[in-house]
Fold each of these.
Amino acid sequence: MTLNLPTLWHDALEKVKTWARVNSPWLIHYNSGSCNGCDIEILATLTPRYDAERFGVKLQGSPRHADVLICTGPVTLQSKERLRRIYEQMPEPKFVVAVGSCAISGGVFDGCYNVVGHIDELLPVDMYIPGCPPRPEAILDGLVKLLRSLQDGQIERLETRPLAT
Ligand code: SF4
């Protein structure tokens, strides 16, 4: 019997990478035009009361260190290019979570003169968390479901998908 060592090493390395990714997702948060209601709920989710850190979740400031982009609000004309630039600066594989009705569909801001769309018209969204605003428990639930789908291999994002123009 011959062992294919390169394949074994490759599989082991992939398992370690998935384990690390699932156990320490670093988030970057961007408000592309929300009323701040969703942002307050995200911040509440990250406090010790809801303790997102038990899942390894950590908020940090640089897109270059982030695995997950968590977005709130519709996309306004002013924020569109900034949102795109943040996404492009994140290393692969990267994931996008849309939080709140406005991020998902434009919500109450849909049709406003300064709104150009919602998040998935610009970026590939992996997880939608509905609500106006969603409660911290719902945000945690969405994050855990995202991590579970990464672990199960349901989401694989090894190459950048083309962005909408
Ligand atoms: S979903 Fe509700 S709370 Fe969130 S940004 Fe829109 S209006 Fe504000």
Amino acid sequence: MHFLANLFRTFHLVFLVLNVASVAGITKAAAVQTHFGPMCDLSNDNVSLWLPSDINTRGGRPLLEPTAPHPSLVILAVGVQNYTCLDNGTYFSFGAIMELFDISCIPQSARASFTTFVSELWAAAPANTTGWDLVGASGVLLHSFALGQHYWVADPLAPASGALNPMWDFRSTSLPRVADPQTAYLVGYRTGIVPAPTDPARDAEWVTLAPLVVDGQPDGLLADQVFRLNTNGGMPPTNSCVPGSPEIHVKSTLNFWMYGGAWATPS
Ligand SMILES: *[C@@H]1O[C@H](CO)[C@@H](O)[C@H](O)[C@H]1NC(C)=O
Ligand SMILES: *[C@@H]1O[C@H](CO)[C@@H](O)[C@H](O)[C@H]1NC(C)=O
Ligand SMILES: *[C@@H]1O[C@H](CO)[C@@H](O)[C@H](O)[C@H]1NC(C)=O
Ligand SMILES: *[C@@H]1O[C@H](CO)[C@@H](O)[C@H](O)[C@H]1NC(C)=O
């Protein structure tokens, strides 16, 4: 678990440099919380200033505008994206398992380079360290920063179709003991998807997502909107695959910016 030890040290360094005094306060949070904000103030963050101005000009479906002036949470995700091989020899995105960490204390201008730095640590981790190893160990090691997991679930609107939807799930961490479990998760669907700006063959697409609506209600109240950006890795190999070959897991390190929802920063 050298990778996790290094990640843990990295977080502590960041927090020492930023002199964040509030970390201890967060772990002493009340037994039942109805609301939970980021570790550091995000009211100066503006995703529109961060996105390249030509982000929506290289194909795909345009990213949407943020639904709130400032994000309610900014997350580092570390894990794998899964691919299966279709009968026609092309890779098909089939879920992911990623561990989620609060990086609101890292200034907006430093988040991309921090994320790339973590992706280099993750790339250097032993080949047999899986996304699930990370999930199992980091909740204990990094409890001040660990938020929960990102994975994919059967589409609640068509459970038998084989279609999957992304889930952000904070219910497993000891950190947020929320009264209403619906405030601690979100099942989403894509509203926009564009190629990653610098290395689209290697880095997963940048995406906007909205809550999936099931029986007239959003499936989870964690956020009203999610951006996926600052992606490092995650795309499948560019060559064709052999139909019937086993699922592959591609390492991926990226950011989610969440807007609105139950965890919005009090303004
Ligand atoms: C964010 O930046 C964009 C682009 O400069 C600007 O139009 C917008 O007003 C800013 N939003 C906030 C909430 O400051
Ligand atoms: C392979 O099959 C999938 C699913 O039917 C389809 O979406 C994709 O366009 C196909 N790719 C090629 C190169 O034929
Ligand atoms: C993706 O890969 C992980 C192993 O790294 C596995 O646990 C998970 O079930 C896979 N499938 C989906 C749909 O996420
Ligand atoms: C991973 O590989 C290393 C060395 O090759 C080995 O010592 C270790 O037990 C393996 N871990 C797992 C979880 O398989």
Amino acid sequence: MTGITSTRLSDGRELIYFDDAGTSTSRAGHLTTDHRGLPPRGEPGEVRFDALTDEWVAVAAHRQARTHLPPADQCPICPTTPGNASEIPAAEYDVVVFENRFPSLGPALGPVPEHAAWGTKGPAYGRCEVVSFTPEHTGSFSGLGAERSRTVIEAWSQRTAALSAMEGIKQVFPFENRGADIGVTLHHPHGQIYAYPYVTPRAGVLGAAARKYYDATDGRDTLTGSLLRAEREDGSRMVMEGTHFSAYVPFAARWPLEIHLVPHRRVPDLAALGGEEKDELAQVYLDLLKRVDALYPTPTPYISAWHQAPLDDVLRPAGYLHLQLTSPRRAADKLKYLAGSEAAMGAFINDTTPESVAERLRSVAVPPSSTPVAAMAATPEGASA
Ligand SMILES: [Zn+2]
């Protein structure tokens, strides 16, 4: 079992240690205190209603002061040392989650205003958390061992449950931005979790399509489940198939590199996964990231985004957990920029074919995991399941 220990930083923010299942000693008896005496936390920024699109926009000008690519010896998420009182008041840890000191949302909680129209604004309620994947300053998620990967998954799962229960939260979004090209402001391998007080625009679009399909089948099927079946039957875009998870490049991929990782069992979110599913996910996800990293000689920037069912009475029954990993990299030395058609119109033009990307991801040589990926094999080239 992952060891979970919650504490508070000097400004009251919550910090939670997730210790690998193999760690024998309990942390609870010897927690170290954050002695930095940080100033009290500020008020939330604001959300403004964009009447033109029926969407909320968070205005977080206070975040301009946040840490930007600090030198390694001043890293805020390395373990604390005599010369660096970091955000993590411990000499060692495995995985840590803590409230962001410069949040886009929160720290106060509550609902967005009702009956929004032009001019409607309110506090940017919600919560933003940072997930440090490892005490090591350099490296990537793909370099974590299977045990540490499993601990991160346990952290995502526990935080999804906890954040979903907080006042006013409508969507919980764990994600990782990897690479300076994506706008990363810290090199230390880490991810984030946003808990929004509204359903985000993208989740709203996906949720509406999912609900429409769910209704058309009288609640007997889900859209994501049907797409997973269709991709596995077709086979030409499959990247890997496991016992509990499969990954494929979607039929109509938008990005030069886009992979969806989907559980075989319909679950709304990471908190609903069982132990065996999490065990396999820990290895499947590592394998997927190793494949992405093996495509080019230099690290590929990516966004790894967990789509979880919104906490919304209409959308949630049709929701289905899945990961969307996307990258703008279209060649060793080329990134796709979102320009006129994509950025202004949302009309994507993909310069790669999903089938060729899947073929590359299947056939790329991947360094072995520290633990063999049990009961899982990459689909042979061109073969269906
Ligand atoms: Zn660091």
